């Protein structure tokens, strides 16, 4: 099975968490895209969705799946999204697609966060994938200097603006031994809107697609 087929298999496994009448939180990225395409097959069973990005909202709408504003619905029962890296503790790095802020909001508003990923995303510790930070434009250089002080190497994502009108700094060289602590520390730096560490609110379930089948981590 190639990587894309594994992503689709993980997305397919997440359908088992979708219950009749739900409003489902939907993530962003190639794995989430598989989930969106599969959700189209059962769209009559759900009330609708909340999307974590404009691009996912467009894809959902193209399938005729209703997309609601988060403010128009209550707490969500379920959020399904991919990740750039995941540990067995279900701590994640997200934001490779630049949608980390809305992803973190929708994850935070959801009772259950089901992460879907192929086996290449599983790591012993986070940080090989550069950690995305969404940053207010005027704070870009200040935040970059603060990250250098912490031992990181910040790289501006060239030519990219988030759905919220901000920039992304990708931080290389971080060995993240305590993701909850680092997430808290980075959250204190003025100008950082969102840290791409999902550790304080980790996933609740990781559906990891392997050559042998789906491994469910909780
Ligand atoms: C987007 C994300 C994605 O979930 C992450 O980048 C994984 O993407 P893919 O499923 O394409 O590997 O966080 O901001």
From TrEMBL:
It catalyses: aldehydo-D-ribose 5-phosphate = D-ribulose 5-phosphate. GO terms for molecular function: ribose-5-phosphate isomerase activity. InterPro entries: NagB/RpiA_transferase-like, Ribose5P_isomerase_typA_subgr, Ribose5P_isomerase_type_A. GO terms for cellular component: cytosol. Belongs to the ribose 5-phosphate isomerase family. This is Ribose-5-phosphate isomerase A. It holds the Pfam family Rib_5-P_isom_A. Catalyzes the reversible conversion of ribose-5-phosphate to ribulose 5-phosphate. Keywords: Isomerase. GO terms for biological process: D-ribose metabolic process; pentose-phosphate shunt, non-oxidative branch.
């Amino acid at each position: 099975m190639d990587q894309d087929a594994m992503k689709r298999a993980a997305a397919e496994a997440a359908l088992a968490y979708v219950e009749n009448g739900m409003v489902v939180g939907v993530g962003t990225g190639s794995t989430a895209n598989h989930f969106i395409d599969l959700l189209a097959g059962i769209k009559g069973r759900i009330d609708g969705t909340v999307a974590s990005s404009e691009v996912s909202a467009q894809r959902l709408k193209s399938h005729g799946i209703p997309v609601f504003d988060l403010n128009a619905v209550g707490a969500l029962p379920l959020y399904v999204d991919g990740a750039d890296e995941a540990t067995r503790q279900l701590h994640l790095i997200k934001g490779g697609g630049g949608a980390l802020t809305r992803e973190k909001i929708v994850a935070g508003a959801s009772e259950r966060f089901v992460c879907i990923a192929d086996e290449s995303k599983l790591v012993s510790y986070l940080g090989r994938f550069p950690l995305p930070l969404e940053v207010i434009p005027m704070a870009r250089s200040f935040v970059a200097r603060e990250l250098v002080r912490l031992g990181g190497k910040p790289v501006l994502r060239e030519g990219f603006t988030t759905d919220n009108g901000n920039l992304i700094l990708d931080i290389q060289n971080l060995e993240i031994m305590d993701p909850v602590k680092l997430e808290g520390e980075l959250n204190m730096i003025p100008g950082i809107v969102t840290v791409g560490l999902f550790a304080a609110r980790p996933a609740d379930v990781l559906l990891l697609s392997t050559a042998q089948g789906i491994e469910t981590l909780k």
